[in-house]
Amino acid sequence: MKRALLRLVAFAVPLGLGILGFMLLVGNKAAPEAAAETERARPVRTLMIKAQAVTPRIRGYGNVQAATTWQAVAQVGVRVIRMDERLEVGGLIQAKTELFAIDRRPYENAANELQASLEELDAQVAELAVKEKNTRASLEIEQAALEASTRQLDRLKGLLETKRVTRTEVDQQETVTRGQEVRVQELKNNLELFPTQRRARAATRKSIVARQASAALDLENTVIKAPFDCRVSAVSAQLQQFVGVGQVLAELHDLHVAEIVARVPMQGMRPLISRAHNGEIVSQLMEPDLLEKVGLRATVGLSVGQNQRPTWDARVDRIEATLDAQTRTVGVVVAVADSYKQTKPGVRPPLLPGMFCEVELRGSPKPDRILIPRAALHDRTVYVVDKDKRLRRRQVVPDFPLDDHVCLRSGLV
After folding, report:
1. Angle 167-220/105-161 helices, nearest 10 degrees?
2. 3-state DSSP of the chain
3. By percentage, how much of the chain surpasses pLDDT 70?
């Protein structure tokens, strides 16, 4: 028991002395001075912004198609007797090249028959003129004979009153006179028919001449030529094949102009064409003289390999009249002229139907506009540095996006 008490005292005395010394030290220590509160500076990246002319632009994508597709259609129905050797899919053919030759012998025979009919008709007209001349001459003779017969009848009637001739002689002369009158009248009737006969011959002649023109057209249509420099896209006829009227023999694409229908967001077109911020974009798209007013320009680009992206200047030809209800895009048709003449092997290919291209549309430059990076815009708010090098919030009104920038309509001007 004593031993346990001694151990407790030996432990408690040093502990108490230690606590007492610590309390004395803390009580005698001076209070620390309060540090002055300082403002921490944060490094930020700033840009000097100034008004400048900004050209709105938008990109769309679409496939190349031929501006003009022409079908070689048979307008006469006979055998194909000749074809150009380049009439294969992909073949290049110059304008006015003979593509197909169709057997022309049946149409030559028909033309010869019509010519013979016309010559026969001309002979009939000449014969009619001779008949008319002869009839007039006969009429003169018969009229003279009628006059003589009438005088004789009048003389006999006078003699009958004096009983110098008999009634029988008078009746006989009267019969002769009446017969002469009939012959004169018949000749007059025949003369009245000649104008009608001439008109009938003239109408027949017009009909034959019209049929000759059709026959000549048929003969011309036996040869089908390329209307322009073209590339063959389809061939459906063969040599010695019988073709019917209206049958499509081949399909050709014009080489001079290629079109791309680029699908672009409808609202993205507003800064390019709208003359008022609140203008109705759909109604402006449908204006007939829109392209002349806004002066849209276009560039067509094509990715052909690593670091190879040839471009072509294009003309904005038209804007399609319908909108895609699902994507809310409008089709803008741009035309590239003579892409084949601009071909550089290994660098710039020709624009072929089906190629997928990027189309950049550019509007007229808008002066005195502010352009800022997209990252600097925070829900219609930007931060500006004041004269004390402090950031201040500023409310702005965006106008339209431009790649990775935003053009402001107001707020920083």
Report:
1. 170
2. CHHHHHHHHHHHHHHHHHHHHHHHHHHHCCCCCCCCCCCCCCCCCCCCCCCEEECCEEEEEEEEEECCEEEEECCCCCEEEEECCCCCCCCEECCCCEEEEECCHHHHHHHHHHHHHHHHHHHHHHHHHHHHHHHHHHHHHHHHHHHHHHHHHHHHHHHHHCCCCCHHHHHHHHHHHHHHHHHHHHHHHHHHHHHHHHHHHHHHHHHHHHHHHHHHHHHHCCEEECCCCEEEEEECCCCCCECCCCCEEEEEEECCEEEEEEEEECHHHHHHHCCCCCCCHHHHHCCCCHHHHHCCEEEEECCCECCECCEEEEEEEEEEEEEECCCCEEEEEEEEECCCCCCECCCECCCCCCCEEEEEEECCCEEEEEEEEHHHCCCCEEEEECCCCCEEEEECEEEEEECCEEEEEECCC
3. 85
Write out the two tokens for 39: 């403002």
Contact 298, 360 (CB under 8 A): yes
pLDDT at position 224, please? 95
User: Tokens at residue 143, please?
Assistant: 């009229």
397/270 Cα distance (integer angstroms): 16
For tokens 């950049």, the residue is 360
Residue 276's pLDDT is 44
Alpha carbon distance 62, 302 (integer Å): 11
**Phi/psi-derived region of residue 127, left when phi > 0, alpha when psi is between -120 and 50, beta in every other case:** alpha
Euclidean distance between CA atoms 65 and 354, whole angstroms? 6
Q: Find out whether 211 and 114 touch, Cβ atoms under 8 Å.
A: yes
Residues 6+ apart with CB under 8 A from 125: 198, 201, 205
Strand 397-402: give its sheet, edge to edge.
52-54, 366-373, 405-410, 397-402
Q: Is residue 260 within 8 Å of 316, Cβ to Cβ?
A: no
Tens of pLDDT, residues 71-127: 999 999 889 999 999 999 999 999 999 999 999 999 999 999 999 999 999 999 999
Q: Which residues pair with 276 in a beta bridge?
A: none
Q: Cα separation of 307 and 199, whole Å?
A: 80
* Mean pLDDT within 371-377: 86
Q: Give me the torsion for CA of 380, 381, 382, 387, rounded to 10°.
A: 140
- On the question of pLDDT at 282 being above 70, the answer is no
